[in-house]
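Structure first, sequence second, as always.
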C-alpha cells in the first residue's frame, strides 16, 4: 500500500492541546493524593470535596488525549506505508513500556505495599519485592503497569487503526461520513447522544478497569475517540464547525459542570438508574472537548516556536517519570505533617521539577533516549550505531559531556537521599542530619555512602567541564583552572567523607564541599567579559545571595533561635538543595551556550578569536 498524501500542514494547536492535557494529568494525580478514592498513596490530609473537584477534568481529559493521539498517528501516515508506521509505533512505545514496567512502576508498587500492607522497607525489602513481582507466581498474576496503561492502549489502538487504514479507502469513507453527518448543530448533538448511550448501556456493567481485555466501556469511548481523531485530520468543515460552535460548547460545559458536581454530592444523584447523571456527564464530556478543539484551532494553529518544540519532546519522558516521582515524594514528605497547602505545593514542585530534570538528563544520553520515548539522537539507529564511529565529533562535544555529568550529579544526589530516607525506618527530617543516613544507626548506610561517593566524583568531573567551558567561551585559563579546582576539592570532600561515616570525626572532611559556595562568584568572574549570558549571571548572583543568607541564619549570626533542634533538619535540607541543585542548572545553561556557539563557530578557531575578527 502506498503512503497517504499529506492533506494539511502541521497542526500546532494539537501539539499545544496534547502538552496541556498531559500537564493537567500531573495536576490530577497530585489531586488524587488528597482525594477519597483509592490511589497508590495518600496524604494525611484528605478532602471530601475532591469527589466533585476531579470532575473538572475527569470526564474529558483522557478522551481528548486519545482523540489527539489518533490525529497524531494520522500525520505519521503521510509519506509512510502501514509497515513503516507500525514499526515507528513499535520503536516509540514498546521500549518505554518495558522499561517503565521493570524499573519505574515497581518503585511505586513497593512504596504502596509498604504504605498499605506493611511490606518491609530498606534495600532488602525492595529486593524482596522485586523477586516477588517477577517470580513465576508474580508474573502469573500479571505485571502492574499503573499509569503506563495509557501506552498499552495507545499501542493497541494504533494496531487497530493501522489495520483499518490498510483497507483501501475505508478511512476516507469514515472521514467523509463524519464530515457529512456532523454538520452544524449535529456536531454537538450526535457525539453527545453516543456518549450518553455508552454511559448508560456499558458503564454500569464494565466501569473503567484499565485492563485491556475487560474494559469495553473504555474501548467504546477511547478507541472511538482515537479513530475519530485519525479520521478528521484534513476534514476542514468539521474543524470550522468546531470553531463556529466553540462558545456554545463552552456555555454548555459551564452549565453541565456544576450540575454534574451536584449529582455526585447529592444522595439523589443516582436516581432513575443514573440516566440523568449519564446525560449530564456525556454533555459535559463532548462540550468541553469541542470548546478546547475549537478555541485551539482558532487561535493556536500556526503558533509554534521553541517553547512548544521543547515541551512536545519533553511530554513523553515527563509522563513516564512523573508518577514515580510523585509517589516517592509523598512517601518522603508526608511524615513532616506540613500544612495541606504547603505540602501540595511541595509535591507539585517536586513532581514537575523532578520530571523536567529527568528529561534534561536522559535526552543527553543517546543509549537510553528510546527507553524514555525519545527518538534516537540524530536519527541514529538504536541500540547500536556503527556509522556514528565514522562521523566527525561535534565541536565542544567533550566539554558538553562533562557538563552533562554536572546536570546528572544533583539528580543522583536527590535520588540517593530519597532512597536512603526510605531505607531508614523512623528517620526524622526535622531533627536529624543527612549524614546520619550513612551513620551507625542506619540499616543500610551503603545507599547513602555509596551514592554520595559517586556524586562527589561526578562533582569533580563536572568541575572540569565548568572550567573548560569557561575557557572555551573566554580563553581565561586561570579562571577556568580555579573553577575546576574548587569543584574537584568539593567533590573530594564529599567522596572522602563517606569513607569515615558519621559520627567519626574525620567525617567532617565534608566541609571541603562547602567551598562550592564560592563557585557562583568564580563563574561570574570567569564569564564577566561575556555580555550574552544575562540569565546565567542573574541565576548565579541569586544563588550566591541565597546561600549567603542561609549561612548567616544557620550560623545564628542573625535571628538567633530561628534554627533550633526541632527544625534543624529542614534547614539543612534547604541548604543542601540549593548547594547541590544550582550546579545542575548552571551546567545546563552553559551546555546550551556551548551548543549555540558550536553551531556558529568555525572548526579550529576559538570563540574569542571569532569574536575578535568579527566572523
Amino acid at each position: 500500500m502506498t503512503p497517504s498524501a499529506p492533506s494539511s500542514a502541521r497542526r500546532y494547536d494539537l501539539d499545544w492541546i496534547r502538552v496541556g492535557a498531559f500537564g493537567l494529568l500531573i495536576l490530577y494525580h497530585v489531586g488524587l493524593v488528597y482525594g477519597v478514592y483509592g490511589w497508590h498513596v495518600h496524604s494525611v490530609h484528605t478532602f471530601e470535596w475532591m469527589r466533585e473537584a476531579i470532575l473538572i477534568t475527569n470526564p474529558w481529559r483522557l478522551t481528548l488525549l486519545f482523540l489527539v493521539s489518533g490525529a497524531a498517528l494520522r500525520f505519521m501516515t503521510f509519506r509512510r506505508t502501514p509497515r513503516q508506521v507500525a514499526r515507528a509505533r513499535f520503536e516509540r512505545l514498546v521500549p518505554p513500556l518495558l522499561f517503565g514496567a521493570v524499573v519505574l512502576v515497581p518503585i511505586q508498587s513497593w512504596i504502596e505495599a509498604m504504605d498499605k500492607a506493611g511490606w518491609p522497607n530498606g534495600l532488602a525489602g525492595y529486593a524482596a519485592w522485586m523477586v516477588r513481582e517477577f517470580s513465576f507466581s508474580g508474573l502469573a498474576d500479571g505485571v502492574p503497569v499503573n499509569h503506563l496503561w495509557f501506552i498499552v492502549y495507545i499501542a493497541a489502538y494504533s494496531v487497530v487503526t493501522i489495520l483499518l487504514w490498510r483497507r483501501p479507502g475505508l478511512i476516507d469513507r469514515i472521514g467523509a461520513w463524519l464530515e457529512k453527518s456532523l454538520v452544524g448543530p449535529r456536531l454537538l448533538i450526535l457525539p453527545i447522544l453516543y456518549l450518553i448511550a455508552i454511559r448508560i448501556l456499558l458503564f454500569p456493567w464494565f466501569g473503567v478497569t484499565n485492563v485491556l481485555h475487560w474494559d469495553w466501556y473504555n474501548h467504546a469511548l477511547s478507541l472511538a475517540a482515537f479513530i475519530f481523531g485519525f479520521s478528521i485530520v484534513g476534514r476542514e468543515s468539521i474543524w470550522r464547525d468546531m470553531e463556529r460552535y466553540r462558545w456554545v460548547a463552552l456555555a454548555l460545559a459551564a452549565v453541565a459542570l456544576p450540575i454534574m458536581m451536584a449529582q455526585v454530592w447529592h444522595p439523589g444523584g443516582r436516581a432513575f438508574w443514573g440516566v440523568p447523571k449519564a446525560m449530564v456527564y456525556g454533555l459535559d464530556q463532548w462540550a468541553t472537548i469541542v470548546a478546547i478543539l475549537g478555541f485551539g484551532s482558532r487561535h493556536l494553529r500556526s503558533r509554534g516556536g521553541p517553547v512548544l518544540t521543547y515541551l512536545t519532546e519533553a511530554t513523553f519522558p515527563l509522563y513516564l517519570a512523573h508518577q514515580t516521582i510523585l509517589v516517592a515524594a509523598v512517601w518522603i514528605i508526608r511524615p513532616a505533617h506540613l500544612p495541606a497547602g504547603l505540602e501540595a505545593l511541595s509535591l507539585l514542585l517536586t513532581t514537575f521539577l523532578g520530571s523536567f530534570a529527568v528529561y534534561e538528563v536522559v535526552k543527553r544520553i543517546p543509549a537510553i533516549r528510546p527507553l524514555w520515548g525519545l527518538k534516537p539522537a540524530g536519527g541514529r539507529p538504536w541500540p547500536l550505531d556503527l556509522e556514528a564511529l565514522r562521523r566527525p565529533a561535534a565541536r565542544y562535544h567533550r566539554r558538553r559531556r562533562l557538563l552533562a555529568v554536572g546536570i546528572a550529579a544533583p539528580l543522583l544526589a536527590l535520588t540517593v537521599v530519597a532512597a536512603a530516607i526510605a531505607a531508614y525506618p523512623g528517620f526524622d527530617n526535622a531533627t536529624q542530619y543527612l549524614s546520619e543516613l550513612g551513620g551507625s544507626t542506619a540499616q543500610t548506610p551503603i545507599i547513602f555512602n555509596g551514592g554520595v561517593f559517586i556524586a562527589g566524583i561526578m562533582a569533580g568531573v563536572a568541575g572540569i567541564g565548568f572550567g573548560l567551558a569557561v575557557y572555551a567561551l573566554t580563553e581565561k585559563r586561570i579562571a577556568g583552572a580555579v573553577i575546576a579546582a574548587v569543584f574537584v576539592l568539593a567533590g573530594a570532600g564529599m567522596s572522602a567523607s563517606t569513607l569515615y561515616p558519621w559520627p567519626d570525626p574525620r567525617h567532617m572532611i565534608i566541609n571541603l564541599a562547602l567551598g562550592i559556595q564560592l563557585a557562583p562568584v568564580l563563574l561570574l568572574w570567569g564569564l564577566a567579559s561575556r555580555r550574552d549570558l544575562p540569565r546565567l549571571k542573574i541565576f548565579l548572583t541569586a544563588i550566591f545571595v541565597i546561600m549567603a543568607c542561609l549561612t548567616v541564619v544557620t550560623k545564628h549570626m542573625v535571628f538567633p533561635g530561628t534554627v533550633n533542634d526541632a527544625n534543624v533538619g529542614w534547614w539543612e535540607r534547604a541548604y543542601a538543595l540549593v548547594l547541590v541543585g544550582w550546579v545542575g542548572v548552571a551546567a545546563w545553561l552553559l551546555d546550551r551556550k556551548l551548543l549555540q556557539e558550536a553551531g556558529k563557530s568555525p572548526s579550529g578557531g576559538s570563540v574569542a578569536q571569532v569574536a575578535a575578527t568579527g566572523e
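Margin note: The chain has 23 helices and no strands.
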